[in-house]
Fold these 4 entries.
Entry 1:
Amino acid sequence: MKQVQGMAHLEAWDVRRYLTRIFGFGGWDFEIRESAMVSHVAEERQKKSGGGSYVAHTVIYRVTGRLVVRDLNGFRLAHWDDAATGDGPNQPSLADAHDLALKTAVSQALKRCAVNLGDQFGLSLYNNGSTDPVVLQTLAGPPKARNTDENGDTVIGLGEAP
């Protein structure tokens, strides 16, 4: 986490780093479920030096994404969906404005999905920007061991849920 304009901020590359540390390479995916350009504004601006003018492009994208985590065998354990917008403001290149806006929206959507995994993924920042933990304990424990037969199939005893 770092401070940006007095607020705690989590970088998208850091979220990706922690996802890989915890779930391993290939142990998580981020799926873009929807992306759409929301706005494009082009304004003629005066150059600050040298005279003349240029067109400044501001583009906004909205992205809905899904963070999927997998077990060591590649089976989907859980997923979280969330959405975000990103902008590419005042870019002299239309391509750069689109590139920046889309990448920002994807990064923000990933971070919004990842907060569901707890404080190390920025959940505490929703507590007025605090970096103090908000999840101090959980009631969930590790999954129960499953009884399997010689073929690896789960054997369910009386009164057990599958």
Note: The first helix runs from residue 12 to 23.
Entry 2:
Amino acid sequence: MEIITGVERRRRWRDEDKLWIVAEAEAPGAVLAAVARRHEVSRGQLFQWRRQVRRGELAAAPIVPEFMPVRVMAPPAIAAPCVEKRAAAAPGAGHEAASRLQSPPSSPGRIEIVLPDGTCVRVDDGVGLTALRRVMTVVRA
């Protein structure tokens, strides 16, 4: 609910809000007039936004990548293995898999990611972005 006091002015809609309302209006079974009424927008305005989306004039802002702080450290004389919390609970994880998880990074192209809860992920430079994103999503859950 929006309460307008004083002189009524034109509302400024963010692109994200416009896209959200257009998506709601184009959902199967949606009634355009009902969607417009629910968001207190005229049907003509909603038709204009739909036209802009179809022409490519109204689109979502590009996703800006976020960077994480990185700390480069000299390798210790004896590398302490990372303790993998989920390795013991994984069904079918053999002795070989557990020893591979606890081995210190040896190649220069390997990255070790240690999360605040102590979970450790080691990644070689050949891993794809999609695979790494899937792993990090599961580890954070």
Note: Confidence is low (pLDDT under 50) at residues 86-101.
Entry 3:
Amino acid sequence: MVLLRRVIGDALRARRQGQHRTLREVSSAANVSLGYLSEIERGQKEPSSELLAAICDALGARLSELLREVSDTVALAEQMPGVLVPVTDEPVEPTPAVRKATNRGVRQVTSDGSVAVQVRQDSPLKATLRTTRVRPADRDVVCAA
């Protein structure tokens, strides 16, 4: 089972780290304690809508963009077989879309080659879902002089 607060926290952390900002900088800008923001990013606390809006404002992001990203991540997880069900100790027949990464309940799921989803089953009722956009290795680099 994927917890919404964990997906929200992952999305916030990804945005913050993508801007190369510290927890202290964002917490000050959002007027929230550093510890509480850290708990939100780790999925331990669920922010109110007002606090979520303040954090998004501090990150220079629209609340709708963040919620759309979270919604897309959850929707993608719902489409993948076995992602939103508890991991059992019994061997499971892998589907072509699912690769088991380790014996600790971590699975790498890819949809169309442009998005990668990693699911870590922390307990029977708790899972961490991380998404990353896969960038092609053969990108053209343009340098202007």
Note: Helices lie at 4-18, 23-30, 34-41, 49-59, 63-79.
Entry 4:
Amino acid sequence: MTRLGDLERAVMDVLWDVVPGTSDGVTVREVADALDGRELAYTTVMTVLDRLAGKGMVQREREGRAWRYRPAASREAHIAQLMLDALDLGGSRDAALVRFARSVTGTEAEVLRAALETEAGSGSTGGDQGEAATELTDRVDGPTGRRPAGEAAER
């Protein structure tokens, strides 16, 4: 997955914050308006959205003469992919994972434990951890247990 430049990140932040998963998306004008204070030309925003579409970061659909844009995946899915890509940079994945695990806070470690238990199918740990795993799954995958459209389940 490609890292995003500052302007691409700002545009993606607008899409992630403004466009709900069930939305038909937003137009270039709506994105430009949401980037108030940046004083960007309409064509600049249009070019950035076109490049993001080319990178697979956004989906677009024609509406009359305009395009409507929405994120191809959630912010969380993008960040997770960046983390996986970082693990592929070389060296030992195991060593990098251990160092990462040692650097997280207690709360973050609990979230990771709950996610790992859920993925392993052992969500029946009982008590608070089982409930935490269910809450985490609902928060990440939605209450139906299905990942939002555009998010791959494989790593």
Note: The helical segments are 6-18, 28-34, 42-54, 75-87, 93-103, 106-119, 127-141.
